[in-house]
Amino acid sequence: MNAExxxxxxxxxxxxxxxxxxxxxxxxxxxxxxxxxxxxxxEALEWLRSDPRRKQVDELVVAADQLDASTRLQLLALIGRxxxxxxxxxxxxxxxxxxxxxxxxxxxxAAASLLLLTLLGPLLLLIALAIRLSDGAPVLFRQRRLGRQxxxxxxxxxxxxxxxxxxxxxxxxxxxxxxxVTRLGALLRRWGLDELPQLWNVLRGDMSLVGPRPHAIAHDxxxxxLLDGYAARLAGRPGITGLAQVLGWRGEIAELEDMRERLLxxxxxxxxxxxxxxxxxxxxxxxxxxRARKPSARRSRRLRRRALVERSxxxxxxx
Length: 319
Fold this sequence. Notes:
By secondary structure, the chain is of the alpha/beta class. It has helices at about 20-30, 40-50, 70-80, 100-120, 120-135, 165, 185-190, 200-205, 215-225, 245, 255-270, 275-290, 295-305, and strands at about 10-15, 35-40, 60-65, 85, 140-145, 150-160, 210, 240.
C-alpha cells in the first residue's frame, strides 16, 4: 500500500475476502490504514446509511462480484467523496502502483493542457455557443467518475444529449443511433470534440492526457465483478485518450468482449507507459477517430502486440 493510502479508514464490503486480499489488508494496517468495519453487502449498505461510524470511513473496499443490479445502484448513492477499491472476493489482491516518471508525466500534462486550452479557446467557445443556440442550456455535462486510486472526481464533457435525457443519472448507455443524441451532439461525438472540456480536468490533475478512459461508476462496479484485473485500471490517472481508443475500442460497449479488449489494452499501457508512448498515442488519436469500425478481437491482439510487448499476468477469462 503506497504512501497516499497511509492513514486511510476502510469499510470492507463483501461476504468473503480472498487470502491475497487479507494479506494486502494486513500489510496496509501495519502502515497505518484502519479497518473501521467489515460487513456483507446488504448490511454494509444499511451501515453506510445509519451507523454513526460511517463518517469516519474514507475508502470502501468492495467485493464487486457480489453486487447485483439493485445493490450497485444503492451503493452509487452512498459513495459520496469516498474512494473505491474494487476487488473480486476470490480474485487477486489489488496492487500498489507507482508510475515511472510520474512527476514528468504530470508536468507534461499540465503544460500541454494549458497550451491546448489557450490555442483551442476560440473553438471551445464556438462549440459552447452552438450548443446553447441549438438546444439551450446546459452547455456542459458533468458526471462523477473514478480517478487515480479510486478517488471520485467530476468529469466534464460538452452536452451531446437532449437536456431532458441528461437529468437522469441512471440513464442507459448511449448506443448507435440513439434518439437522445442531438444532431450537433452526433457530430461532436463522432470526432471526439465533446471530450475537449476534459482538458480542464487534466489541468486540475484529475486526469491525464493519456490513460485508460474513465467509465461511469456504475460500469466500474459491474465490470470489476466480471473481469479480474479490472480494478487495476484505477491505478493511475484516467486519460482523454489511450491505447484502447487508438486501437479502435471506443464508444458503445455492446458485449463483455468489448470491455475485455479495452481492459487488455489498458493493462498493456500501464505496464509499458512512458512519455514517448504517450506522444505516440496522442499523435495516433486523430487517425483513430477516422476509423468508424471497431477492430475484430484477432486484429486487436495483432495491433496491441505491434504497439507494445504484451506480458499479461492477469487471467481475464475468469467470469
